Amino acid sequence: MLRLDRVFVYVQDMGLQVRFYRDTLGLPVIYPAGEADLSGEYFVQLDAGPCRLVLHGGGEKRFGEDAPALSFHVDDVKAARERLLAKGVKLGEVRSPAPGVLVSDGVDPEGNRFSLDQY
Predict the structure, then answer these.
(1) HSE-up of 119 (CA within 13 Å, CB side)?
(2) If I label 44, which of 5, 26, 55, 111 is the partner at 20 to 30 A Cα–Cα?
(3) What is the CA radius of gyration of the chain?
(4) Which candidate, 72, 55, 60, places its Cα nearest to that of 106?
(5) Is CATH 3.30.720.120 correct for 1-65?
């Protein structure tokens, strides 16, 4: 079963974006916890209710590449990937961007990015 878990927003100025989403909109920071100045972080996760908002560094305002990306949590990324490949969905190989995390990236029929994530 897929469930929307996180939405990634690629940002250029982490400090500015954290101040907006945390301080102005009031979304609590989940990760990294307990730090006031997050301007040097590359990955900041905020609590947006049943879904998480992830501010991800490295954005360069590239249309289509820096657009928000949907992240679907799955219990077994390899099995979920195989099921979707059998249905004709194009997905990348499973990769591990961090210890204990497995990801397979894909695009929907109009080119919107999504990923299957196991952690």
Answers:
(1) 15
(2) 111
(3) 15
(4) 72
(5) yes
Residue 91's DSSP bridge partners are 106
Bond into 32 cis (ω within 30):
yes
The per-residue pLDDT for range 37-83, each reduced to its tens digit, is 999 999 999 998 889 999 988 777 665 666 777 788 899 999 999 98
Cα–Cα distances (Å) from 31 to 9, 19, 21, 78, in that order, read 15, 15, 14, 26
Q: Is 33 exposed, middle or buried (0-12, 13-18, 19+ CB in 10 A)?
A: exposed
In the numeric block, the tokens 């101040």 are attached to 19
CATH no. for 74-119: 3.30.720
Check residue 36 and report its DSSP letter. Answer: S
